[in-house]
Write a structure and sequence with these properties.
Protein name: DUF5606 domain-containing protein
CATH topology of one domain: Arc Repressor Mutant, subunit A
Number of helices: 6
Strand content: 15-25%
Structural class: alpha+beta
Helix content: 40-55%
CATH architecture of one domain: Orthogonal Bundle
Number of strands: 7
Order of helices and strands: EEEEEEEHHHHHH
Largest sheet: 5 strands, antiparallel
Shape: globular
InterPro entries: BVU_3817-like_C_sf, BVU_3817_N_sf, DUF5606, DUF6852
Pfam families: DUF5606, DUF6852
Radius of gyration: 27 Å
């Protein structure tokens, strides 16, 4: 499952795909049927990437990606508008080690609604790009490329404009003293 570029925006319902960024904000496309494109302000919008979201766990935090994988294998996923007790029992099946005191019913509803949006999308079934295996081959070539593009320091030039300017400042400063 590849959740790269899928974000939740505070104050906006649903999920969005991050398309790009311009000087005024982030360009987002909604993942619903309308595919509406919007720009959200960089300074006021809070984006949360689904890749980075975790759920409170008893011992350690649970990654949302892992919960989605278990939800995908589950036989029947309840509707997001289901009762809190139904969602809680379902969450015991897909995330048995979640912290019951810190994970609220509203959080579970949000996760289930996100799952229903994502489950039919092609990115949900595609494999995640392996960065570890690719990174293992690239460091040597990256070091070579970095060494080839490393800028050599420029020699200091004896520019008379800078030396006369500093001399002029010294002369002007010296004349003000009594």
């Amino acid at each position: 499952m590849n959740l790269t570029g899928i974000v939740a925006v505070s104050g906006k319902p649903g999920l969005h795909k991050l398309i790009g960024q311009n000087k005024s904000g982030y360009i987002l496309e909604s993942l619903d049927a309308q595919k509406a494109k919007t720009i959200v302000n960089i300074s006021t919008a809070k984006l949360a990437s689904l890749e980075d979201i975790t759920v409170y766990g008893e011992d350690e935090d649970l990654r949302l990606k892992d919960i989605f994988a278990k939800m995908k294998d589950a036989t029947n996923v309840p509707d997001a508008k289901a009762d809190g007790k139904v969602l809680r029992t379902f969450f015991h099946k897909v995330a048995p080690k979640h912290d019951e005191e810190k994970v609220y019913a509203s959080d579970m509803k949000k996760i289930v609604s996100w799952f229903h949006v994502l489950k039919d999308m092609p990115l949900f079934s595609e494999e995640e790009v392996k960065t570890d295996a690719a990174a293992g081959d690239k460091p040597e070539s990256a070091k070579v490329a970095k060494a080839a593009t490393t800028k050599t320091p420029k020699p200091k030039s004896d520019n008379k404009a800078t030396s006369t300017k500093s001399a002029a400042v010294k002369k002007a400063g010296g004349s003000k003293n009594p």
